[in-house]
Please model this.
Amino acid sequence: MDLRKLKTLIDLISASGISELEMTEGDDKVRIVKNAPPAPVQTPLRAADASAASEFTAAPPKEPPQGHVLSSPMVGTFYRAPSPEASPFVQVGDHVEEGQTIGIIEAMKLLNEIEADKAGIVKEFLVENGQAVEYGQPLLRIV
Model:
């Protein structure tokens, strides 16, 4: 298959909503997947590469957040304040009571108040103001 044709296909996939394309032309077959997780690449090490490979060690696994994590009950856009001009419902370091409003999730043009499901101190926000959130995504941590 011609490289120009491959490049054109890749550009078309990148610009479209299609995430995968498989095409056969004669004996040639190509499969293009957009945003696929990278496949692990294993290459044999030579003795000369052993010292260089030791320089690239894996980062230690990230520890799970300590304390209680409040998760999103729905898909939408998370906002920390009732309006762009208003101050946030809560800040890092504030004490919250169970049932206290900590933010809003806008879903389908409706504003849904999100309440703390546990009393404690807000340790950190795990999402940014105005960020799209998924169901079950951690929003903030309370200790």
